[in-house]
Amino acid sequence: MAKSQLRFVCQACGSAYGKWSGRCDNCGEWNSLVEETVAAPLPGAKGAGLPKGRAGRLVPLKGDEAPLKRIESGLAELDRVTGGGLVPGSAVLIGGDPGIGKSTLLIQALAALARAGHATVYISGEEAIAQIRLRAERLGLADAPVLLAAETNLSDVLATLGEGRPPEVTVIDSIQTLWSPAVESAPGTVSQLRAGTEALIRFAKQKASAVLLVGHVTKDGQIAGPRVIEHMVDTVLYFEGDRGHQFRILRAVKNRFGPTDEIGVFEMSDRGLREVQNPSRLFISAREAEAPGSAILAGMEGTRPVLTEVQALVSPSPLGTPRRAVVGFDSNRLAMILAVLEARAGLRIGAHDVYLNVAGGLKVREPAADLAAAAALVSSLHGAPLPAQAVLFGEIALSGAVRPVGQSEQRLKEAAKLGLTAAVIAGNGGEPAAPSHLRLKRVETVSDLVAWVAGLPRPERTGVKPLLQPVTDG
Prior knowledge:
This protein has 474 residues and is α/β, with parallel strands linked by helices.
């Protein structure tokens, strides 16, 4: 017979220890060890080892079964991120900051699915049924035939889902609130999260039902609990956004049935989330044409080209250690760009405060944003606005060279579609198939970029004095 034993499990990485300590030796988190009770077999007891298994049936890779048909949610942006719709029998984990709109997105998706004739169930462990109905009325979804339940006991949830015809799509909001009576630990602990996720994935595979799990996030923006949960599910989505902006980004970081790094763009309103069909026009619509330090980046988010505005402000610092503030951009990447501009182009930025922001709340992760960020920094330092109809993209190397990036033709086509007339790209790449009315400006090094910006006209109304001179070969 198994007896209970105590162990201390890290809630960040899942590592187990025999005694408590203030810091996890595996991941380095402080005060993350929680006492949990587990059942373990007695040493040397009969049956302590693995039982004899039953041989399974091997099947060829090519089968005669019809391919699985995806379930389209009715929200084009959600279907885009998932790869064309939900796959029956799949488990999807959706994480995001509190109040960002995860529950709103899912109740809207379930309502669209239910109106299309699909059987849907929404199980909440955080809200009562009356509260869910109140939110549905505010969103105009009260007439959607979505089945509701408010339950946190994992056994009761599985029994409810197993009655009658299994639902085609099920939402669990959230996985941290479920608890299993077979696990002697508090809800939200590593053991409970693992047990709940395993049971729901098993249900999804057996009943061919798509299960969407809502996950809480930590202060670092990662989904709470051990990373093993993200490995167990088929798809991991992050719902991002700044509460100061109305835009919300749904980003795929893992997808076994579609591309990763794909994004869907939504706009938050009093009637819920509204899909944004052309995010490029949305992100650059409020750009000030005559403002120094503003550049348009042609980035790629998965398979979609997205144009965004990169804003920079460089000003003399009254402090001994100048500030470096970054929003929506990698701070390490910014430090590298500043070092290259100083070492390879001769700029003196070390005594200046530097602020870099990606407008609209979007987070840019690709190296193709280097050229736009550098141009915005030089433009702010020099006081010369960049051309309002120009788009920039390219990677900056430590040698100061500007390297070409992939999918250039898609970026240029998106810029031309929005009416832009010029593009600044790497000078040592191939010849992309650019639209005929799009003029290409090639820069091979950051020195070429600085010389180009220094030659741009500065508006007299700004009264900004030039802080640098054009770089020459001499």
